[in-house]
């Protein structure tokens, strides 16, 4: 079995492009060109150069001495938090801005939840001198003021999404509507492995640099390219897709996906899509999503703004249903505790998203010789206020 | 013969009206349908509300959100419509997004439509090829006409393909936009209307998006068999209530 996308844009039965006809030409243009463009030597050269000089790649693969001792196993952190703009998101936006330029687009739109993808998009638009419009839920704008300011400083226009629940899913709807209304000159930079084909595959390929580096870095550390486990948090699932990518079809490497349980999977305030979701359509993709019996999409909850998406990328829906990846859900409290523990043991303040991945060591016992690579998808600067409130610092 | 096909054979330009089921009030659905028929409307699109209507602008979004708050669901709509054929004869189309139908079960949904004598469906986010490969047989089994959209950006080749698998009419979206975004037609639209009219398609075309008054209705129907009004009607009902539907229709048909 292959866990990659097939030629029709499906991962198993998940994926596809369930889009209104108004979007068909835009998505079809991208579908016909993305692999060709990505294969061009000039594209590769420019992409890799920017990842090196601008993003600061390769990001270190760091062996945690004290954390490993505490849990009696070998824990490595893939330090995506050290990237420019503070998370893995920039890998994708660099790739997509180069794609947009080659497709002759001069106007960029994006959605953002907490603002990380919005900042990463505004950053690359400034870098390339392209117009940038970021849709953000009205409620998120109010609670993520620093990122709104960052986007504005970078020259982006931040448009509040005032429809529906006024959060990430509605910001995504608004970005899609913008694209319907501007079909010729605009490229939509989706921030995760979600949306209609070819987005999940394209974003996964841009994020695949994470697992590509893990392989040679682990070779240097351990004399093997294969970890026993790769662990990553999953909201839409882009950092996980990147961390898994080169291990997908190698079943010696076990994949662990960590979802946000919020206040608890059964509390009604959760974002654990694999457990709570059913098969359906969200943002043009057939995948697992949280919805009412009647098929209305519901609002998820997590303390981490990057994980409260009601769907999950179709690759992950397939990894879950096929059993290829183990899915674990972690509550707000356990994630926060694990985040603080990393600060104390390793001197690294993680993003709350990444803290969810770190919390599995309290849930799951590994062998002393197991090599466990955790994707540290982002840094915690953006989350200081939440940490302060939670721990009354 | 399906009521939509019958209507399309009449020697007149057709006015089709979209409204959101369960809006402004949950029990307005049947009343609106009867009112539209009594006032000379030719065809009705009953909007099944969805939480995330990607192709719709603010007016229909807001009416959908309110309808859901009012308690509208697929089941409730089917219950409201169960005796509808005792009072109206007008062609009825359900327009909605794919996810609620998928959750209801596509076959169960189609079967229910046949029972209450719904004539067709418009599902903007059900792609042509998926319909063709997975659902066409089911729709046909229950006598339902599926209506596809085309836009100014749709290639001639794709329009021919869509024409070949359509069995009622083609929904011509007047410009690249969400619903209710633009009003009035410029050269770009009329060129597009002419281009399609000259393709001599097998299925008649009905133009939607951007039609809000007598002027735009007349312009659109110069090139096509009919025109659809959605957002402007929903706005009218929002402001004037269901009792004033006659005023709205009168102004369109003059």
List keywords for this structure.
heterodimer; A: 393 residues; Rossmann fold; 42% helix; B: 254 residues; TIM Barrel; 9-stranded parallel sheet; Tryptophan synthase alpha chain (chain B)
Describe the protein's architecture and organization:
The complex is a heterodimer of chains A (393) and B (254). With 393 residues, chain A is an alpha/beta fold. Chain A folds into two domains: 18-50 and 89-203, 3-Layer(aba) Sandwich (Rossmann fold); 56-87 and 208-391, Rossmann fold, CATH 3.40.50.1100. Chain A has 16 helices and 14 strands. In chain A, the strands form four sheets. Chain A has a six-stranded mixed sheet with strand order 3-4-14-9-10-13, with helices on both faces. Chain A has a four-stranded parallel sheet with strand order 7-6-5-8, with helices on both faces. Chain A has a two-stranded antiparallel sheet with strand order 1-2. In chain A, strand 9, helix 11 and strand 10 (254-262) form a beta-alpha-beta unit. In chain A, helix 4 crosses helix 5 (116-128) and helix 14 (332-346) crosses helix 15. With 254 residues, chain B is an alpha/beta fold. Chain B has one domain (13-253): Aldolase class I (TIM Barrel). Chain B contains twelve helices and nine strands. In chain B, strands 5-4-3-2-1-9-8-7-6 form a nine-stranded parallel sheet. In chain B, strand 1, helix 2 and strand 2 form a beta-alpha-beta unit. Classes of the chains: A alpha/beta (393), B alpha/beta (254). Chains A and B meet through helix 8 and strand 11 of A and helix 3, helix 5 and strand 6 of B. Chain B: Belongs to the TrpA family. Chain B: Pfam families: Trp_syntA (PF00290). Chain B: The active site is at 45 (proton acceptor), 56 (proton acceptor). Chain B: It is an enzyme of class 4 (lyase). Chain B: One of its GO terms (molecular function) is tryptophan synthase activity.
């Amino acid at each position: 079995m292959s866990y990659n996308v097939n030629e029709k844009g499906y991962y198993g039965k998940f994926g596809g492009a369930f889009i209104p006809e108004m979007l068909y030409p835009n998505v079809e243009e991208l579908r016909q060109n993305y692999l060709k463009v990505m294969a061009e030597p000039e594209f590769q050269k420019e992409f890799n150069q920017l990842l090196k000089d601008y993003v600061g790649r390769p990001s270190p693969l760091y062996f945690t001495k004290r954390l490993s001792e505490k849990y009696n196993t070998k824990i490595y952190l893939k330090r995506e938090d050290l990237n420019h703009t503070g998370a893995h998101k920039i890998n994708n936006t660099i790739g997509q801005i180069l794609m947009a330029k080659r497709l002759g687009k001069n106007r960029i739109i994006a959605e953002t939840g907490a603002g990380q993808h919005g900042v990463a998009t505004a950053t690359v638009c400034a870098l390339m001198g392209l117009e940038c419009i970021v849709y953000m839920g009205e409620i998120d704008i109010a609670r993520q003021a620093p990122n709104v300011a960052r986007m504005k400083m970078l020259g982006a226009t931040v448009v509040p999404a005032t429809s529906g629940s006024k959060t990430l899913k509605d910001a995504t709807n608004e970005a899609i509507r913008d694209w319907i209304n501007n079909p010729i000159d605009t490229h939509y930079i989706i921030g995760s492995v979600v949306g209609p084909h070819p987005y999940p595959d394209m974003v996964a390929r841009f994020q695949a640099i994470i697992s590509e580096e893990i392989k040679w870095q682990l070779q240097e550390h351990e004399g093997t390219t294969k970890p026993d486990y790769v662990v990553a948090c999953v909201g839409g699932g882009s950092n996980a897709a990147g961390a898994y990518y080169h291990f997908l079809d190698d079943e010696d490497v076990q994949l662990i996906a960590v979802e946000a349980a919020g206040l608890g999977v059964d509390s009604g305030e959760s974002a654990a899509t694999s457990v709570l979701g059913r098969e359906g359509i969200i943002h043009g993709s057939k995948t697992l999503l949280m919805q009412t019996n009647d098929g209305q999409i519901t609002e998820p909850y997590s303390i981490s703004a990057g994980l409260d998406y009601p769907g999950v990328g179709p690759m992950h829906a397939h990894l879950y249903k096929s059993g290829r990846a183990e899915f674990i859900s972690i509550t707000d409290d356990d994630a926060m505790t694990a985040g603080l523990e990393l600060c104390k043991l390793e001197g690294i303040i993680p993003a709350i998203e990444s803290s969810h991945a770190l919390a599995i060591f309290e849930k799951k016992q590994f062998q002393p010789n197991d090599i466990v690579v955790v994707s540290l998808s982002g840094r915690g600067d953006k989350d200081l206020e939440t940490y302060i409130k939670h721990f009354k610092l | 013969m399906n009521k939509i096909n019958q209507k399309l054979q009449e020697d007149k330009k057709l006015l089709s009206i979209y409204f959101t089921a369960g809006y402004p009030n949950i029990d307005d659905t049947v009343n609106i349908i009867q009112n539209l028929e009594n006032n000379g409307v030719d065809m009705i699109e009953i909007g099944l509300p969805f939480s995330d209507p990607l192709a719709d602008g603010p007016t229909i979004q807001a009416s959908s959100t309110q309808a859901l708050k009012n308690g509208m669901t697929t089941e409730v709509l089917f219950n409201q419509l169960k005796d509808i054929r005792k009072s109206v004869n007008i062609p009825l189309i359900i327009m909605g997004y794919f996810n609620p139908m998928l959750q209801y079960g596509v076959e169960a949904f189609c079967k229910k439509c046949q029972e209450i004598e719904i004539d067709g469906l418009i599902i903007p986010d059900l792609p042509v090829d998926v319909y063709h490969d997975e659902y066409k047989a089911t729709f046909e089994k229950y006598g339902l006409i599926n209506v596809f959209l085309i836009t100014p950006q749709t290639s001639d080749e794709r329009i021919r393909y869509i024409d070949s698998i359509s069995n009622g009419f083609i929904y011509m979206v007047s410009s690249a936009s969400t619903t209710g975004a633009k009003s009035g037609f410029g050269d770009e639209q009329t060129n597009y209307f002419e281009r399609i009219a000259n393709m001599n398609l097998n299925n008649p075309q009905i133009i939607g998006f951007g039609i809000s008054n007598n002027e735009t209705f007349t312009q659109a129907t110069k090139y096509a068999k009919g025109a659809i009004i959605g957002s402007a009607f929903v706005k009218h009902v929002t402001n004037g209530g269901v009792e004033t539907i006659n005023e709205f229709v009168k102004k369109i048909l003059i």
